[in-house]
Structures are given as structure tokens and as C-alpha cells.
Amino acid sequence: MATFDILIGTTSGNTEYLALELADYLKQKGHHCEIHDEPDFDSLAEQAGTHSTWIACVASHGAGDYADSMLEFGEQLAAFEGHLNQQPYLVIAIGDSCYDTYCAAGRDCDERLEKAGAKRLAERLEIDMSQDDPEEKLFTWLENIQL
């Protein structure tokens, strides 16, 4: 049984809904999940590499910014100068391809986590809310990675 910290960055609630579906899926597989609807990067970084896998569910908002509930997380991550001790993580980026900033916040989060010494467990999942069936794409991705 693994432990997952699910970090939610949402503005309209779509990403939160998807993150809760993700948590249900993982719990059905026997895993433990902790939901962070306003994640605090500094607190999580203190425990990096010790016990869990982070799954960042990040919606892009406005000009590619982090969604409201994850703004502070994004700022803390950008200012971080330490090392994340190979903290395992996954990123689910949510966006709408009709904007040129499609999935920009999720891409930024993925890049910054990797640069800070975290260990990506699988390629980032990008979900286009105007084109994809979000749940279908999420569950297909989950079935193709080893958790």
C-alpha cells in the first residue's frame, strides 16, 4: 500500500472533481490518499522523500497562471532553493487548448519540481477540457503507469 498526497489547483472546481475521482481510484487499489485543496509547498518540502508520492493536479488560469487554490504553492515552489531528495511525483495538467497558455501552470510545476530534485514517475498527463473526456483520459493514464 502506497501513500499519495494529492495537491489540487482549481478555480472552477473541475480539477477538484477529477482529483477526487483520482483519490477514489487509488483507494480502491488499496492506497492511502491525503487531499490538499490548498497545498502548502513549504510544509510538503520539509517531508520530501520520506513517505509519499505527490500528485499535482494543476489547472491553468488566466494567462497560464496557477489556479487560485494553488497560487501560493506555485510561488513557494518558484522561490525554493533546496533539494527535494528524489521526492516521487506525478503531474496532471488541466487546460483548454483554445488558449495559447494551454496547461502552462502544470508544465511549469512539472519543470520546477524536476529542477528541485524531485523524481518524475511518469510523463505528465495533459487534459484538454474542451476536447477530452477527462475521466477516461485519467483512468487510461493511470492504468498505463506503475503505482
Description:
With about 150 residues, this protein is an alpha/beta fold. It has one domain (about 5-140): Flavodoxin domain (Rossmann fold, 3-Layer(aba) Sandwich). It is about 35% helix and about 25% strand. The chain has 5 helices and 7 strands. Strands 1, 2, 3, 4, 5, 6 and 7 form a 7-stranded mixed beta sheet that branches. Strand 5, helix 4 (about 105-115) and strand 6 form a beta-alpha-beta unit. It is globular. The chain starts with a strand and ends with a helix. The relative contact order is 0.19. The mean pLDDT is about 95.
Overview features:
alpha/beta; globular; Flavodoxin/NO_synth; 147 residues; 7-stranded mixed beta sheet; single chain; Rossmann fold; 35% helix
